[in-house]
Amino acid sequence: MFSIGGTQTNIGSGGLTITNNAAASVSGTYNLLLHNTSTVVASGTITLSGGGGVQQPTINGVSFWGLNGDGTATLGGVATTNWYTPTTPSVGAGYWIYITQTGGTPGFSFSPVNVWANIGTGTGGGIGVVGGAGSFTITGTYQIASDSGGAHVLSSGNITLSSVSPVQSANYSGSMPLVLSGNGAATVGGSAAGGWYSPNSTNAGSGYYINITRTSGTAGVNFSAAQGSWTNITNSGLTVGMSGYTGDVGTVTVGGTYQISSSNTGTPVLGSGTISLSAAAGTVIHVYTSAVTNATETIPTGTTNVYCEVFGGGGGGGGGNQHPNPVIVYTGGTGGCGGLAYSVYTSAALGGAGNTFKYTVPSGGAGGAGGATGSTGGAGSITAGSVTGFTTMTGNGGVGGTGASVVGNGPGGAGGTGVGGNNTNNPGPTGSTAGTSGKISGDGSPYGGGATGGSGSGVSGSTGKSGAAVFYYT
After folding, report:
1. What is d(CA 214, CA 248) in angstroms, rounded to the nearest whole number?
2. Rounded Cα–Cα distance for residues 223 and 242 (Å)
3. Proportion of the chain above pLDDT 90, given as a percent
4. With the C-alpha atoms ordered 302, 308, 313, 314, is the resulting torsion angle positive or negative?
5. Fewest C-beta atoms under 10 Å: which of 70, 145, 265, 281?
6. Separation CA 196–CA 202 (nearest Å)
7. What's the pTM?
8. Angstrom distance (rounded) from CA 151 to CA 98
9. Can you tell me the distance from the alpha carbon of 32 to that of 44, in angstroms, rounded to the nearest whole number?
10. How far is CA 252 from the centre of its chain?
11. What is the pLDDT of residues 283-315, one digit of tens each?
């Protein structure tokens, strides 16, 4: 009901506050009258909802449910959601509760049941269970009214009391995700795990909340749900995966502790345990083919092994020429391909994830003008940034093709050399547009192909292809 009603009440110079006495909404009409007259000067409707007063929580836990006279409550001896808010001394004297049992273990029943019982002004009153020996779970509904006959019911809800908490304290470990089903079951990585609620009960999830605290794991990796906040499991269940590992390598992990409560405030805590999840982040490959000088590359989190290769730029094609009389066209030589250097290191030997390399991707050599030799391709390199124990790798550029003479074609340029690779150092093919093949699967090679020569008097050769730098992490 509204806090005032049925009689004229003066608004007064200080104003007037109207409240309702329950969490449920209440609606009504009002008339605004001249003071001490029956003259109505305005009228309208009032609807108040979500207010203080009698609440209607879902009760599910260990017997018994204690309803204190000031509006606070306990469940299994632990503080739980208030039945009345805000806390008000002796408010329980004006309210009565009625329990209807709907199911449960045979031989057990609520106490009291099927009677309107005054909540009273003190502590220790409430709803318990009577019956024989052994464990039990019983279910029912409750109503709270502002009169002893139940004519004015202000709230209602479901109640389940057990001899032990239905919320379990399982520990979960395995591949992500952890799925907490709405009926109390659980799986980790698709395999059955210890349930969070027992026995399984349809639609149990809506009455419980979980909060996860991260305590360990791969840097930057977190739980994808319920980390640091009380999150409703819901009747549809809750999936807890991992976030923040995009770009990581190998196996990533995250670990922590959790608590489960029947309240979104976390009071009371009914179950707790640990969660440890892992995921295979796989491998990462970075391929750089645009010309750049002294760029930075960082070893990703989770890396065990590092594979790197660098290619020199291709040589430019030689310029063309021709014999004047009789006219015979001659072609400049094709540039040589860039060399390859390839190395393999453990991440630990380089100082571990987060350390850096510097790399240079070279351009190809320019073509020669008519009859002139093409330019040598640029040298690609990988050097140490912050990594330790690393040997500089160089892929030298292919030599430019020789320009044609008036009496013959120009020969192809020599391939560039590879230097500093601790696994492979290969020269590029001589006088070839094919480029040089690498050692890392999926690197997109060949790179650093030589350019074709010009054909005919004054015809310049083409520009060689750029080199590349490749980093592969497992």
Report:
1. 19
2. 5
3. 75
4. negative
5. 265
6. 13
7. 0.57
8. 12
9. 9
10. 13
11. 999 999 999 999 999 999 989 999 999 999 999
Encoded tokens for 355: 């350390």
Number of H helices, E strands in the chain: 0, 37
Q: Which two tokens stand for residue 303?
A: 């890396």
Every domain of the chain and the residues it spans: 1-51, 55-162, 199-282, 283-474
Q: Token pair for residue 354?
A: 């987060």
Query: Which one, of 261, 255, 167, lies nearest residue 210 by Cα?
Result: 261
Give the C-alpha separation, 460 to 449, whole Å. 17
Strands 292-298 and 284-288: unpaired
Closest CA to 59 of 148, 126, 132, 136: 126
Distances (CA, A) of 324 to 298, 405, 423, 457: 58, 11, 51, 9
List Cβ neighbours of 55 (8 Å cut-off, separation of 6 or more): 22, 23, 81, 82, 83, 84, 85, 155
Distance (Å, whole) CA 171 – CA 115 = 42
Six-digit token string for 78? 């632990």
pLDDT tens for residues 30-84?
989 888 788 888 989 988 766 678 999 999 888 889 999 999 998 887 788 999 9
Chain segment 300-357, per-residue pLDDT in tens: 998 999 999 999 999 999 999 999 999 999 999 999 999 999 999 999 999 999 999 9
- From residue 300, how far is each of 174, 250, 474 by CA, in Å? 23, 10, 10
Query: Whose structure tokens read 């959790």?
Result: 258
**Burial code of 123-148, b = ≥16 C-beta within 10 A, e = fewer?**
eebbbebebeeeebbbbbebbbbbee
